[in-house]
Amino acid sequence: MKMKFMLAMLPLVAATSAWADDASGNAELVKRGEYLATAGDCTACHTAPGADKTAKFGGGYPLASPFGVIYGTNISSDKEFGIGSWTDDEFVRAVREGVGKDGQQLYPAMPYDSFTKMKRDDVLAVKAYLMSLPAVHSAGPQTDLSFPFNQRWGMRVWKLFNFDKGELKNDPSKSADWNRGAYLVEALEHCGTCHTPRTLTMGMDTDKAFSGGDLGSWVAFNITPDKNAGIGTWSQQELVTYLKTGFVAGKASASGGMGEAIEHSLQHLSDSDLNAIAIYIRSVPAIGDDKQTTPRDAWGQQSQDVYPLRAEGQTVNESAVALFNASCAACHGKGGAGSGEGFHAYPSLFSHTSTGSYDSRNQVSVILNGVQRKMDKGEIMMPSFADQLNDEQIATLSNYVSTQFGNPAGATVTAKEVAKMRKDAALPYPPKIEEGTQK
């Protein structure tokens, strides 16, 4: 009788064991998918600004393009508005080919020209992770571009010129770290999307890969090994530290889109993957720029000219020096050398890639937008001055910083240019200050 009972229980034990193995395997798949989704920075474009955890991947992030605003879509597990009813093939096709569930062409704001290089198994791991999360039952704002850019069939023509379909293959002549770095840079992290210039048809100019991209009010700097225009003076460890923390003293501090990439993606990668990224990016062909004749982090020096006017009681509107005294000196130091040490240090205004560039858009954008990076170790913050300084003051301040601490070639900012950058970023304008009063 005992033997019969044991034999009868065998199918149940086998089924339970199989279920446990399947659950364990799915948990590992979801965990891997979470890491890959983080490496791909999916949350940056598919989660609305200010959304809480319950709305993660619910879409609604506005992406500025030369043709209008494109909104990130809902990729949560919701069956009506998200990907809950998508098959594996449909999801892979969207990620790697830019074709939606119903056959509609996706705009290349979704970087499928990079994601096409992803392994199918990795794409499906990302899907498993997304499907494990709560559904966000919201359609979110819909992309509505003007004619002819609202004709999605036109993306087929765009793809003829700009889309090379296919998974990235390993180069057997290179090391495992180099190949891993290539996969991360070229596919998952899609670094070229921002750091590569665009052609007339708005595709990536692969002949000038990673030599810098125009992001409107921001510049994605040259990250090739060129010593003047790029990162040729950076060590392996400096690159890894920057990717992990967004800050290297005497080199750079991350802001704008790069700050977001570090916050949402890069800081969460393993040290081995960060090292692999640095190995690969230091190996790509160096591309120079005749306008950048000295390394961006080699410009400027400490200045002592910023205080004399303090004792004279000048208002913030009377000189560039007074503007600097009132707005910058408290954090960046009286001579622009920065203040503090370690993670929460305020960066120097000289020996900095933004102030040392002949293109000062990033510098102006930082003054307008501020800096906010929510890091694992704490928050890095610089306030926005958009509601305190008018366009003329910001232009004056930026030009002073370029002349006094950085590359004088960048001291060409006009109030009109600041006004456009303010408008593009939908930033407030400071209230009018009555004559004879101080702000």
From TrEMBL:
It is found in: Cell membrane. InterPro entries: Cyt_c-like_dom, Cyt_c-like_dom_sf, Cyt_C_IC, Cytochrome_c-type_DH, Membr-bd_ADH_cyt_c. Heme c 2 binds at residues 191, 194-195. GO terms for cellular component: plasma membrane. Its cofactor is heme c. Residues 1-20 form the signal peptide. Binds 3 heme c groups covalently per subunit. Its main location: membrane. Heme c 1 binds at residues 42, 45-46. Pfam families: Cytochrom_C, Cytochrome_CBB3. Heme c 3 binds at residues 328, 331-332. Keywords: Cell membrane, Electron transport, Heme, Iron, Membrane, Metal-binding, Repeat, Signal, Transport. Residues 28-134, 176-285, 315-405 form the Cytochrome c domain. GO terms for molecular function: electron transfer activity; heme binding; iron ion binding; oxidoreductase activity, acting on CH-OH group of donors. This is Gluconate 2-dehydrogenase.
